[in-house]
Amino acid sequence: MAEKNIPTLYDWAGGMPVFEKLMVVFYRKVLSDELLAPVFKHMSPEHQLHVAHFIAEVFGGPQIYSSSEGSHFKMIQKHLGRHLTEQHRKRWVQLLIESADELELPEDPEFRSAFVAYIEWGTRIAVLNSRETENNEDVDVPMPKWGWGETKGPFIP
Ligand code: HEM
Question: Could you give the maximum distance between any two Cα atoms of the chain, in Å?
């Protein structure tokens, strides 16, 4: 397959409606989870939409989060001083994967490998940032970009 025809993870997942629905289902689970509910009880009404836009952008979607809602710097800022634990992180990952299954996001090994790799990376960064009280990043640090990685996808049956 010519490189220019390789879809982004965003397109392969089904575009923005899929990311927005994913976060609705995910935060419903989060708020009824006894470990995570206290962490998110003060989240803003826009939170789930912002996270949907953030992840969509990382996966090659439109620059909605970084152009009008926040920046990578601001996202880091939101995690500072929250003292997230490995237990929080693992539950977050588990609930997100369950939500992806429920919404029938693509199940092919290539997509799921790239998806989980980002979630694993992003949540570990969030935990590290949550131990800091100051943001040591550059204010204009670019958004992360995530592609197919080692699988060089997408899945071709
Ligand atoms: C890939 C991993 C993650 C991404 C991409 C991410 C993304 C974000 C973004 C974009 C915001 C800002 C939302 C806004 O502008 O309103 C945010 C805030 C926040 N995140 Fe994360 N996050 C991740 C992992 C985690 C984990 C593992 C936890 C805890 C278990 C967590 C807890 C929070 C909390 C508590 C806030 C602030 C909510 C509020 O009170 O408004 N995040 N995150």
Answer: 48
